[in-house]
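From the methods appendix. Each design record in this collection lists the tokenized structure first, followed by the designed amino acid sequence. Records were kept in a plain field format so they could be parsed without special tools. The example shown here is representative of the layout used throughout.

RECORD:
FOLD TOKENS (163 positions):
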């Protein structure tokens, strides 16, 4: 059960993503609350512009959902270990891509939803972006640790002025 400690957030988030793949989140349904918000902020925008922005927001939702999933899967794979290994990132991206494909396949059976290869690519891109961000954080952390270590060594090597 130790594995569950690291994996439960990813499993819960996968269920949330599946919830977003139901009929409740069709484009028609989300337009009922997204379009009025857009109209509030852009009162003079043409209906076509609002529809386009609605589409972009939905696609950004895909990217964000799978960015989060990718980070949570990486957390599970790392299981508390520090650092980052290329194999962890690659396995994470593979899992994200497979889940995205499975989710799109599921949508092919949901009334009002369609399966789209483009969405799988967007989802996988979100997963890849997350791994790039995670890598940057690890690299920045290592650089910070090295800088602090160098400062400690320099302070220890400096002559003490007792004058």
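DESIGN:
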């Amino acid at each position: 059960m130790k594995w569950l400690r690291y994996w439960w957030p990813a499993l819960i988030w996968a269920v949330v993503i599946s919830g977003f793949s139901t009929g409740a989140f069709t484009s028609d349904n989300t337009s009922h609350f997204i379009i009025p918000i857009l109209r509030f902020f852009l009162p003079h925008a043409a209906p076509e512009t609002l529809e386009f922005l609605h589409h972009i927001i939905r696609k950004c939702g895909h990217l964000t959902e799978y960015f989060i999933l990718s980070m949570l899967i990486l957390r599970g794979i790392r299981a508390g270990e520090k650092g980052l290994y290329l194999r962890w990132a690659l396995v994470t991206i593979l899992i994200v891509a497979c889940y995205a494909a499975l989710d799109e396949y599921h949508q092919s059976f949901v009334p009002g939803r369609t399966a789209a290869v483009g969405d799988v690519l967007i989802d996988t891109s979100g997963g890849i972006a997350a791994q790039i961000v995670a890598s940057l954080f690890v690299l920045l952390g290592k650089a910070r640790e090295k800088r602090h270590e160098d400062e400690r060594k320099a302070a220890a090597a400096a002559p003490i002025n007792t004058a």
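APPENDIX NOTE: The chain has one domain: 2-156.
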